[in-house]
Design a protein that fits this description.
The protein is of the alpha+beta class. It has two domains: 9-179, Regulatory protein AraC (Jelly Rolls, Sandwich), CATH 2.60.120; 185-293, Orthogonal Bundle (Arc Repressor Mutant, subunit A), CATH 1.10.10.60. The chain is built from eleven helices and ten strands. The protein has helices at residues 99-103, 111-114, 133-151, 157-174, 186-201, 208-215, 219-230, 234-252, 257-263, 269-280, 284-293; strands at 9-10, 25-31, 42-44, 47-54, 57-61, 64-67, 72-76, 81-86, 91-97, 128-129. Strands 1-3-8-5-6 form a five-stranded mixed beta sheet, with no helix packed on it. A five-stranded antiparallel beta sheet has the order 2-9-4-7-10. The N and C termini lie close together (12 Å).
């Protein structure tokens, strides 16, 4: 078990050199020489686009494990926990950015949520496989230009934002949508906004009605919309998020049961234990013991 009390949450500055800590973006080469003092698994409070054209390994995002088969692109939304295991010959580019950087000149503040690969309805983050060589060459040229511009002391912020816009737009064009009707409209954005709020507030143990208040809708409408678009009720989504985070705290930290109950805003340890056992069939202590003997990818 990791000798830590919390799952680390890193800001963009944790992945920036001293001369770039004030930036709201970073674009650079991603390879085995890219080292920062971070622990895995961890979370980000920013968006990430990771393009890989060489190497192998796997990428665990939340509880989902994805094999790396270049050329491919991984996407991550703020709040998601992830773990990287790559071969020594891994090569690619990464563009990380805050929502403020992307939205500063946007009239539509839902622009990021409208992209198909952030806060996905399915709660999964499979990599986008780049099938055509011409697509790979164009995408790679955009990342190369972004990385080159980001190295300049007198970088052009507007150019960096335009390159990011082009990268995201082109990748959205390539991204497979199982049902285009589900990627448009208020219902789709509502569910994505709900997911975003859950990532921001899951430790507070808010109920469905409280999330509905934050969204300025009724609890019944929230539940009906999530059920229609995801197949799950809003309550089920909240419970699954709670269980995932509790499992993560049990397997990746040294917090005791009372500390975990407090952190997840349960009334008391007894209720916390009953909730976990009802949802998983195991007590928290049993789950922790099993995760120690068989390390989890959570």
């Amino acid at each position: 078990m990791k000798n830590q009390k919390q799952l680390p949450v890193y800001s963009l500055t944790s992945f920036s050199t001293n001369d770039k800590v004030t930036r709201q973006f970073q674009a650079e080469v991603f390879d085995a020489n890219r080292h920062f003092a971070v622990q895995y698994p961890h979370r980000h409070d920013f968006f990430e686009v990771l393009y890989l054209y060489k190497g192998s390994g796997y990428h665990i995002i939340d509880s989902n494990r994805y094999e790396v088969h270049p050329p491919c692109v991984f996407f991550m939304s703020p709040g998601q926990a992830h773990k990287l295991t790559f071969s020594h010959d891994i090569e690619g580019y990464i563009y990380i950015f805050t929502s403020e950087f992307y939205l500063v000149e946007k009239n539509n503040l839902n622009s990021l949520l409208e992209l198909p690969f952030f806060f996905t309805l399915q709660h999964t983050n499979p990599p986008l496989q780049i099938e055509r060589q011409e697509d790979q060459q164009f995408i790679e040229s955009l990342f190369i230009k972004s990385a080159e511009e980001a190295l300049k002391k007198d970088y052009d912020c507007q150019l960096m934002r335009s390159l990011l816009e082009l990268i995201l737009s082109y990748l959205a064009h390539l991204y497979p949508n199982s049902d285009p009707l589900l990627t448009k409209g208020k219902g789709h954005l509502l569910v994505k906004r709900f997911y975003q709020l859950v990532e921001e507030h899951y430790k507070k143990n808010l109920n469905v009605a409280q999330y509905a208040d934050l969204l300025n809708i009724s609890p019944n409408y929230l539940t009906a919309t999530t059920k229609r678009l995801t197949g799950k009720s809003s309550l089920r989504i909240l419970k699954e998020k709670q269980i995932l985070e509790i499992k993560r705290l049990l397997s990746q930290t040294t917090l005791d049961m009372q500390e975990i109950a407090n952190q997840m805003h349960f009334e008391d340890q007894s209720y916390f234990t009953k909730f976990f056992r009802r949802e998983t069939g195991k007590t928290p202590l049993r789950f922790r013991m099993e995760s120690q003997s068989s390390p989890s990818d959570l």
